Structure formats: C-alpha cells, structure tokens
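>> Question from a student workshop board

For tomorrow's exercise we were told to take the sequence and the ligand below, predict the bound structure, and bring the output to class. My setup keeps failing. Could a helper post the expected result so I can at least see what it should look like? The ligand is PRP.
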Amino acid sequence: MQETLKIAVQKSGRLYEGSMKLLKECGIEVSNGNNQLRVLAANFPLEVFFLRDDDIPEYVQDAVADIGFVGENVVRESNKEITIIEKLGFGKCRLSIAVPKNGKFETLTDLNQKKIATSYPLILSGYLKEKNITASIHEISGSVEIAPRIGLADAICDLVSSGSTLFTNELKEIETILLSEAVLISNKNLSAEKKLILESLLFRIRSVKKAKNNKYVLLNAPNDKLETICKILPGMRSPTILPLAESGWSSVHSVISENDFWNAIEKLKAAGAQGILIIPIEKMIL
Ligand code: PRP
Ligand code: ZN
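>> Workshop helper replied:
Here is what the output should look like for this input. Compare the format with yours to find the bug.
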C-alpha cells in the first residue's frame, strides 16, 4: 500500500483560505464540504488534518502530522523540534508592540519597568532581553488589544495584519519585532517514502510560487528599438521576437519578475514599446 503524507492546516482563521487555495493551485483536490477534521485528497497521497494553528508545531514534532502549513509567528513561539522547509508567500503579517495612541509612551525605552500583555511571551521576552528592556510580560491568550483600556497592561505585543484591530482600539505600533508569513514545516524524521511525497508537493508549491512572482509581458516594438527593449527584458533565456504584419514592427514576448515590474514598464514605454500586455502566469516549471 502506498503511504500518505499527513498535513496539518489551520481549521479556521487567517491561514485557512490561503492554505486551501495553495493546495488547489498545486492541483490537489481536498473537499472539506462537511467540515470534517480529516480529509483524504482525491488525487495525491495526502491526508489533511484541520487543527488549531497553535497546536500544529507540536503535532508535527510528535509525528501526529508529518508536515504543516502554519504561521512563522506560531512556529517561533512554540519552539518545537521541527524544520521550516519553505516560506509560502501568503498570510503576511507582523508581530508588533503597540501603545495607547494618546498616552505617555512613545518608544520601547518608555516601556522599561512597565507591563506588556501578549500571547507571544517567548518571542517578546527574547526581544526585550536583546534590547535591554526590563518589562513584565502578562500572558493572555486572546483579545490582547483591550488590555491597556481595562488597566491590565501599559502596552501590548500582538499580530498586526491590516492594522484595523489596532486602529479600532486606539493603539499605535511603536516597534515591529517579527515579520511573519505562512511556512511549510516538517517532522525531522520522515520515512524515505514520505520524503518522496514531500519532494513532489514541494516541486508543485515552488512552481506555483514562481509563477506568482512573475508576469508574462507581451508588447509591440519598432524594429530599430528592439535591441534597447531586449536589454530591459532579459526573459528566461532571451525574449521571443516575432515579426508583425505591419512592416518595421515586431511582437516581443518575455517574463518579468514582480519586483522589477513597474520600473521596467516605464523604461519600456520610454524606449518606444506599445500595446504592452501583462498576463498572469499559472505555473512556471524551469
Ligand atoms: C490577530 C491579532 C489581532 C488581529 C490583527 O488575531 O490577535 O486581533 O489578528 O489583525 P488586523 O491587523 O488585520 O486587524 P488572529 O486572527 O491571528 O487570531 P488568533 O490570535 O486567535 O489566532
Ligand atoms: Zn491562533
């Protein structure tokens, strides 16, 4: 019988949608119609466990699950014996220290000898130590953002994504202590067969990620400008150039990374490119 790889994903919360979307983009069908906690993928040797995110690192360490999709913040706080295999590019957020908007604290130093409420005592204490700040850490598991208003703490340390929770609670960020996103974690002692399944899943994940970071660019260029334009667009090998029906013009096809994108588009226009089309890429196999 072929083995299956057991993956833990968040049952509900900030990473649920992104995790399911990634599996789908990897061509793996997981139907969770009946809100089941355990689902076998239809077309890949994968079994999905839906769990509370805070429990995922421990379950992966203890081999209840082989791998997991979970926030880096949860991994760092849990401090378990697991391996981070890959950043997944979704669920981006940060762990920050925030204080009341119109209060007397402005900087981290102002929090010396004060009280900070958080669900991340381990990461926070490490950070304060590094910065030589002595503050008392008050651990609470939820609704951290109301702590200053009810007199529980002077400041908080919590996850910030859109910032709307801080805004509605009249708090302002004064220090970012960790940038986080969803990561793929693995148990340290996978069997050879499970390692092979993981390799195959990773290959798909990397192809999806690469495609997201790149765009397909299609444009028209006068032939005498081709050389300049090709220098702006290196492409995977070199751009594909096809003659247009209108003489003296060519169509140029290439791939460009998201990071270089706006910069390159301006240069392309300045160099005489016209009819520029930017097309999303679905998968990229190099
Ligand atoms: C976090 C955090 C804030 C909120 C911030 O909770 O505790 O309440 O998200 O997001 P915002 O900046 O977009 O408003 P999370 O959803 O991770 O829930 P959990 O702590 O219960 O896992
Ligand atoms: Zn959580």
